[in-house]
# Entry
Amino acid sequence: MQADGAPRTREELVERLGDLRRQGILDTAEEDRLLRHYDELLRDVHDEKARLEPEYNRRVREQGLEPANAWLRDAAQDLGRRHGEATRVITDQLRVVTG
# Structure
């Protein structure tokens, strides 16, 4: 596991959340909710990738690689922003935040 930053795998997330639960920072329900949220985000990323891929390929063919990559960058930033907002809603409800 990397020492800083976000966990790179579900297994790392499980380990970190377990550590937080053992320290009393999270309860079991919060840990479960965060894991479900992670799984939902991962499914969303896979669904979004499948949705974007044909459009990206079309743009590569019709506009070239650079414009297609710029479009994909924008789409990825939008997805990241939406996921960040959804995650903030959940983390703002954790006991450690709400007291």
